[in-house]
Specification:
The chain has 158 residues and is an alpha/beta fold. The protein has a single domain, classed as Rossmann fold, CATH 3.40.50. It is built from six helices and eight strands; from the N terminus they run E-E-E-H-E-H-E-H-E-H-E-H-E-H.
Amino acid sequence: MAIRAIVLDVDGVLTDGTFWWGPDGAEWRRFSFADVMGIARAKRAGCVFALVSGEDSSLVERFAAKLGIEDVFTSCMDKASALREFAGRSSLELSEIAYMGNDVNDLEAMATCGFAAAPADAEEVARDRSAFVAPRPGGRGAVRDLIQHLFPAALAAP
């Protein structure tokens, strides 16, 4: 069965896994425009996206809003359950969903989906459980690498 949706962990996949606290206590994270372009192009090609994060950060919601990603799971300690919930809400089979994660808290979701992926700098256990390991690290184009692998036509030059 073909992949129709991609679910992404946030920290360590869409970001490099670090965060900054500003002098006023604000939390900052950095996202990659390579990933933004990949997601936008894949969405236009019909791919559905969801975000899953163990953190409760308004930055995740802001990123999702920027890209029109409606399914966002924050403060999520059971990512496999979130994946199943997303599948049900989206009328998808789990085998039609790719999941990209980077650490031990992603392993159950990676085992639940149809296609598991990890960034180049993911923990070894996550890379070992992946059908695809991106050439680039998290927060530096790993998501775009996955999209290129699964949906090459979406990123082809117009």
